[in-house]
Amino acid sequence: MSLRQLVVLGTASQVPTRYRNHNGYLLLWDGRGVLFDPGEGTQRQMTLAGVSATQIHRICVTHFHGDHCLGLPGILQRISLDEVPHPVHVHFPGSGRVYFDRLRRASIYDDRADVRPCGHEADGVIAEGDPSITTMRLDHPAPAWGYRLAEADTWTIDPAAAAGAGVRGPAVGVLKREGRVEVDGRTVRLEDVATPRPGQKVAFVMDTKPCEAAVRLAEGVDLLICESTFLDADRKEAHAYGHMTAGDAGRLAAEAGVRRLVLTHFSQRYPMDAPFVEEARRHHDDVVAAVDLLRIDVPSRRSERQGG
Ligand SMILES: [Zn+2]
Q1: Of 252, 249, 246, 251, the residue nearest 234 (C-alpha)
Q2: Residue spans of alpha helices (H) in 19-69
Q3: Ligand 1 centroid vs 147 CA: distance in angstroms?
């Protein structure tokens, strides 16, 4: 079954509140899960959200401030306890390896998990496959990196058009693989008989002040999960601490051509989400404020007519 959905586990920044757990986001993608930034309490939030450790295939940690990683010990130990049958790759800034190692061995347990630490040192692709995962360094006092998941762009062949062009049987496979095929001395190209099927894309941007890397990570994504620690009234302070405002997030979404923007990582100083949504909507239409335990769908695929 194809389910592509974000399960929000926590939405607080530095200090959790009565209504907001520390960060934590599980992206479900066709039966495989990517857990982002497990803060304290993520294990319990997963129980409340009805998701299990077995659903985690990868973990991506943006940086080693506590609100983004102090849930790792519990999650890794739970993966071991539940005897999760597959390997779990953990991506994190390589410069923070010492923190990863401490969190992995934070207390005594019988470690039976197949955990594969993958520290990254440079911008680029860190996981091949569908979706691929790309990381880029953001602009925050601690080394922080954002992530972009991208399904490959493909084509949908129109059977009638293909048959009309004489492409039948094994020639269809050649056309799909090579993008062109010779039929009776003529060349038929994919674009002659097929329409583009853009892959779905998701970006995860936190913590950072506005920067070029954030725009590149978010370029054309269907879903952007973005920090908006502050409101524009506190913009100077936000940037001084290496953070964004809801207005910044809205401007980023507009500039990068994002479809749905999810705001999160709220400072404890603001009790309500409404002003965040209002502020981001001045720049971008489709804005959702993340709420603990909310499930947010990746918007359905762009229609082929809209193209990539
Ligand atoms: Zn944070």
Answers
A1: 246
A2: 42-49, 66-69
A3: 15
Write the CA distances from 18 to 139, 171, 235, integer angstroms. Answer: 30, 61, 25
* pLDDT score, position 73: 98
> What's the gap between Cα 57 and its chain centre?
13
Q: H-helix or E-strand containing 93?
A: strand 88-93
2, with CB counted inside 10 A (0-12, 13-18, 19+), is: exposed
Give the torsion sign (CA, 201, 148, 221, 272).
positive
Q: How confident is the model at residue 303 (pLDDT cuts 50, 70, 90)?
A: low
- Give the whole-angstrom CA distance, residue 78 versus residue 8: 19
For residue 18, report the distance from its CA to the centre of ligand 1, in Å. Answer: 18
Tell me the CA–centroid distance for residue 102 and ligand 1, in Å: 19
CA of 97 to the centre of ligand 1 (A): 18
First-to-last C-alpha distance (Å) of the chain: 24
DSSP H stretches of helix in the chain: 42-49, 66-69, 72-81, 97-104, 159-164, 170-178, 190-193, 212-218, 235-240, 246-256, 274-281
Measure 15 CA to ligand 1 centroid, in angstroms. 9
> Does residue 25 register a pLDDT over 50?
yes
The amino acid at residue 42 is: T
Query: Nearest-CA neighbor of 54 among 31, 71, 72?
Result: 31
For the annotated catalytic residues, the residue numbers are 67
Residue 212 Cα to ligand 1 middle (Å): 19
Q: How confident is the model at residue 289 (pLDDT cuts 50, 70, 90)?
A: very high
Between the alpha carbon of residue 287 and those of residues 35, 158, 187, 192, 278, the distances in Å are 22, 35, 46, 37, 9
Average of pLDDT values for 21-44?
97
Joined together, the tokens standing for residue 115 give 């955990």
Phi, psi of 307 (to 5 degrees): 70, -170
